[in-house]
Amino acid sequence: MEARNSAIVAAERTRGVKYAIRDIVMMADALKKQGREVVHLNIGDPITYDFATPPHIIDAIYQELLNGNTGYSPSHGIAAAVQAIGQEAERKGIVNISQICVTHGASEGIELALTALVNPGENVLMPTPGYPLYTAVLSKIGAIANPYYLDEGNEWQPDVADIANKVNDKTRAIVVINPNNPTGSIADEATLGQIVELARQHGLLIFADEIYDKILLEGKPPTPLAKIAQDHPCITFNGLSKSYIGPGLRMGWAIITGDPKAHADFTDAFMKMARARLCPTTPMQGAISAALQGDQSHLADMSARLKTRRDLVVSRINAMDGFQCVVPKGAFYVFPTIQDAASDWDFAVDLLEETGVVTVPGTGFGQRPGTKHLRIVLLPPEDVLNQAMDKLAAFVDKRRRAETS
Asked: What predicted TM-score, i.e. pTM, was given to this entire model?
């Protein structure tokens, strides 16, 4: 039989999968190989900078290993972890808990939920700007990201009127990321209440992505959406990656709440998917109860350091011609507008190639048409941030002088 020399072609479902946060790293790595100095302001990994996982969390994982807990766990997680998650949710005012499932990071929970809920051709309302994992997963399963816009003129609050206009007969769910990545905004309780009413009116499942809920830079802590939703079906995602400074631990969870009769079929499908992947990593699950029930003092220290860094970056950016930045109240990002650039992707690439400063263009998170932004991470120490801001200011000034000469 004659051998075929045709190329192995990737599945069509992968064509729309994009992840700008990591994609731009490939360009940065190419510069490093040339011996260039690179300043990373692109990855939301506290461990990369001067933050560390609290020791008692590390000790808990080590103890699980010493105890020989390296076999399979129940698909939904070990009892101690599930209990700790449930108690934490109840302390926040979340009731009507039907199911808790420990996942391989919050990302796996999001993927399991979207896969269990959405059919090809259906859509999910996505905050724009918003975390690109959702759009990548929706593309993979043949579904559609239905963007609703956050209002930059109103501190990046969700535009409820825009949400209402975007609902159609193919809409299955609405995603709320609070605090938001990439803007660092915190949705107020009145706005969240209006979103819940829209979800109730149209029979939509609520996805409450609250992974940054304990990183507060100013103002009131975010109100859990499930607390507002009460009996309306809601699935809340959280984990140890951000607030507990353990992104590589890959420990997250999903909490399904609301009237059990209303979400029973979805919950069954979600857990079917969870059983198919066997279980989350067993020894790492020991970190969950240690984190949620142990010493919380790192949270105040982390938030205080991030607030100082936020104030530094926002003041530096707002002093530059052609930039404007809303002050974030949570998480560890700023998302400034670039007023004088044809393309934020080209701006970010040119900035990287000329100065070695790595940012992420706003196109990677979605944005209102005609606007341009950069996402900048606030995690580096002040001296690194000042160095990066010096390079950004010089880059902007050089461009402006070139345009006017």
From this structure: 0.94
Measured CA to CA, the distance from residue 49 to residue 271 in angstroms comes to: 36
Which two tokens mark 227?
A: 């607390």
Supply the Cα-derived Rg of the chain in whole angstroms: 22
Give the per-residue pLDDT at 21.
64
pLDDT value at position 345? 92
pLDDT score at 18:
66
Our CA angle for 184, 355, 37, nearest 5°, is 100
**Pair (101, 128) in one structural domain:** yes
Closest CA to 217 of 155, 147, 309: 309
Asked if residue 6 belongs to a domain, the reply is: no
User: Which residues, given as ranges, of the chain have pLDDT below 70?
Assistant: 1-6, 16-22, 405
Please say whether the beta carbons of 174 and 198 come within 8 A.
Answer: yes
Strand extents, DSSP E, 142-300:
144-151, 157-158, 171-177, 205-209, 234-239, 251-257
**Side by side, which strands form the sheet with 123-128?**
97-104, 251-257, 234-239, 205-209, 171-177, 123-128, 144-151, 157-158
Question: Number of structural domains, the chain?
Answer: 2
Angle in degrees, CA 131, 256, 297, rounded to 5: 65
Distance CA 10, CA 12 (A): 6
Residue 2 lies in a domain: no
Question: How confident is the model at residue 3, as a pLDDT?
Answer: 60
